[in-house]
Amino acid sequence: MKERAQHLLSMVERDIAANRLILPSLPEVAMRVRELTADPDCKVHVLEHEVAKDAAIAARLLKVANSSALLRGSPLTSLRQAITSLGFNLVRSLVTQLAILQTMQSSSDKDRLRGFVAGGLRISALCHTLAGQHAQLDPELAALGGLLHDIGKLPLRDFLERQAELSPTERMQFEQILHPQVGAIMLRRWQMTDDLVRMAREHERIMRETGEETPDYVDVVIAANLLHYGTEKGRYAQYADATVPALIKCTNGALSAEAQQSTEERMELALALISA
């Protein structure tokens, strides 16, 4: 199985290099917004001008900024007001997430996509909550990583469906084995940070141990997956009686009522994103 998986991964990499497997592109507005917001000297009007180049994303950003999940005062009527109210970090996160959701919506398999997005948004909300409990972590970066960690499944499923010699069961097995590596390839293509690439590449290393007492971003996405899917049955049942380092570091074994409430509030934002 391991040798076949490595062979298939080599085929995926060759198909990507030869443009036989086309990876979705991240809209240019998201790339530019990420560049601009990384500059401490960036001005609001410059960022506003860049976001406004994509009318759809600009309108959706304003709508999300006015959602009940974020609005704390009078309604915002301009893109500049939205950017000023949200702050650069949140604008970067929201524009990236909106762009990714926009990219995903081009998929022809709507049913599969709905399940993928729903799970990704829930794990994203959990990542935001867990990272928010640890001062060394950025909750918005963690939330973006939660949304993106399974992204490799989208092109990989198309590739595996073209391998006629594989049974449906084998396709599912190889998808589970290979999607972290394919996701990492995609995120490097999208020029995402090393932390986000690692979250995609290493999130299935459930018993991963760093030797550190505090969690990193990979720990956060591992813990979020376990909390979302559970260990009673299904993909993570083998860890039901295990002491998972990431889960202990992130939650000390359980998600508090306060953390659960924080996750539900973040889900309000997620729902605003997909309905914008």
Automatic annotation (TrEMBL):
* Membrane-spanning segments: none
Among InterPro entries, the record links this protein to: HD/PDEase_dom, HDIG_dom, HDOD, RNase_Y/CdgJ
- So which domain of life are we looking at? Bacteria
Name the species this protein comes from.
Answer: Saccharospirillum mangrovi
Q: Which residues does the UniProt record annotate as the domain HDOD?
A: 23-206
This chain belongs to the protein called HDOD domain-containing protein
> Which PANTHER family has this protein been placed in?
PTHR33525, RIBONUCLEASE Y
Q: Which SUPFAM superfamilies match?
A: HD-domain/PDEase-like
**One Pfam family per UniProt:** HDOD
